[in-house]
Amino acid sequence: MILISEPTPTLAQLRAFLAVADHLHFREAASALRMSQPALSSAVSALEETLHTRLLERTTRKVLLTPSGERVAVHAARVLKAVEDLMGEVAQNREPFNGPAHLGVIPTVAPYVLPALLPMFSRRFPRLKLTVHEAKTETILEEVREGRLDMVMLALPTEVTGLVEEPLYEEDFLLAFSPDHPMAGDDTPLDREALKGLDIVLLNQGHCLREQAIDVCREVGARATAATYATSLPTLVQLVAGGLGVTLLPESAVPVETGKRVRLALRRFADPAPGRTIGLAYRASSARSAEYGLLARAVRSALRARRLPVRIVG
């Protein structure tokens, strides 16, 4: 079966007709479009033929719109405006740092770093319409691969092919526990071996911080034996402050979590201290990959200016 599609109006035909509809005079319409009057008349006639209806009532002295012509003029104006908006938006999006950008951030980074970054984005990139999505590592990695997110801020390396990884900062893990814990009151840096035999409380499955804590424990033969798990880092802090074990706390979280009148004791580890690297990742195939590289530089500058307890990379 062969399908024969009906011809559709061209933009040139709509533009010609709308000019006549606006001026109700062929010579003035042709002058406004900077085209010859015969070419204009031919375009309007072609539109009438395509639509199978008369759009104009022509006399020797004037031009009038038919009822169909009045309705088509409204639609033509709407179509041409939409095309104009489309061209304008595409032209704007060709400019750097313009238009929508979707950023994914893991929960153990978002509340501690975003307050330093969002004002910077508004100030330095006012035409960038940034939206932030907070979710666990597996979720935001899937969404950036599928194109639902443009870039993600998470722990590196991701070990995902096709992504560019821009390290932003490194930070140490501190051992956090209740002030009533036997280890409290001593500022001597801890050896990792001290983790053996402790009840280590972790985040639930899906948090990369959980896996990083397990790796630290595994390196020294320690195990996370606590039966209690937390769904968020603030909850984890509350649990250990209440005496339900100890945990590893990223240093960037310390100013926020200890500023909530939480009774929490902290101990550093001896070098080389356990920690993590946080970075920005985005698709290598993205048309805006060069912009995201520049955004990573801006993020480093903003974090450095806020003097967060992290080591800026680069």
UniProtKB/TrEMBL annotation:
Organism phylogeny: Bacteria, Bacillati, Actinomycetota, Actinomycetes, Streptosporangiales
Family matches, as InterPro entries: LysR_HTH_N, LysR_subst-bd, WH-like_DNA-bd_sf, WH_DNA-bd_sf
Gene3D superfamilies for this protein: Periplasmic binding protein-like II (3.40.190.10), Winged helix-like DNA-binding domain superfamily/Winged helix DNA-binding domain (1.10.10.10)
Family: Belongs to the LysR transcriptional regulatory family.
Swiss-Prot/TrEMBL keywords: Activator, DNA-binding, Transcription, Transcription regulation
HTH lysR-type domain mapped to chain residues: 9-66
Pfam families: HTH_1, LysR_substrate
Keyword Nucleus: no
UniProt keyword Ligase, yes or no: no
UniProt protein name: Probable hydrogen peroxide-inducible genes activator
